[in-house]
Specification:
Number of helices: 6
Strand content: 25-35%
Strand order of the largest sheet: 1-2-3-6-5-4
Number of domains: 1
CATH superfamily: Electron Transport, Fmn-binding Protein, Chain A
Number of strands: 6
CATH topology: Pnp Oxidase, Chain A
Structural class: alpha+beta
Order of helices and strands: HEEEEEHHEHHH
Mean pLDDT: 93
Oligomer: single chain
Distance between the termini: 22 Å
CATH class: Mainly Beta
Shape: elongated
Low-confidence stretches: none
């Protein structure tokens, strides 16, 4: 998390919106085997109190998660910022980015909760891709589905701390921020430029 308070989102639900929109996280934990990280699709509960995910049973992190304190990180768009895009000469390059950290304790899910998580994931993302009809597990052989779910383990992270960072040049003037947005857009980072233009002005409106 960047220490500059200018990069804390002023929109209370922005971190939740980013987690729901991106839907994919890195899960970090300390284990007896050393630090480990896994990568997984996630489901944030309606009240934003828990984050569910699942991992392959053979994942190096899986056997260590039940009861552990972990850090889940959802990362949004990012891009290099050239110092040449600023008007003043005495500037240095930096990096603009969006990241949401969630800390909390993890518990293992039972089979019914795991299947409910998988159903939620597929329904959410099938709706986004516009599949018609959408894929559901009803299209699978039940025995095969059961075999495949037996190869994964579901977890729930009870969130005790949110630490979002939305670093979009909010500490710069509106003119400089637009120059940076144009620069990152020209280098192929249109999503970040759009966020800068949409959210970076929070500082000006505060």
């Amino acid at each position: 998390m960047h220490p500059n308070s200018a990069f804390r989102p002023r929109q209370d639900d922005l971190a939740e919106l980013l987690v729901r929109e991106i839907g994919f996280a890195a899960i970090f934990a300390a284990t007896p085997d050393g630090p480990r990280v896994a990568h997984a699709p996630v489901v944030l509960s309606d009240d934003a109190a828990t984050l569910q995910f699942h991992l392959a049973r053979g994942n190096a992190l899986t056997r260590h998660l039940d009861g552990a304190i972990v850090l889940a990180v959802v990362q949004g768009p990012d891009a290099y910022v050239s110092a040449s895009w600023y008007e003043a000469a005495d500037q240095v390059p930096t990096w603009n980015y969006v990241a949401v950290e969630m800390e909390g304790s993890v518990s293992k899910l039972d089979d019914a909760a795991l299947i409910a998580q998988l159903d939620t994931l597929s329904a959410t993302h099938e709706a986004r891709v516009g599949a018609n009809p959408p894929w559901t597990r009803d299209k699978m052989n039940p025995a095969l589905f059961s075999k495949m779910t037996g190869a994964i383990t579901g977890f729930e992270l009870r969130i005790t701390a949110w630490r979002p960072t939305v670093k979009l040049s909010q500490n710069k003037s509106a003119d400089e921020r637009e120059r940076v947005a144009a620069g990152v857009e020209a280098t192929g980072h249109g999503a970040l430029a759009q966020l800068m233009r949409h959210l970076g002005g929070d500082r000006d409106r505060a």
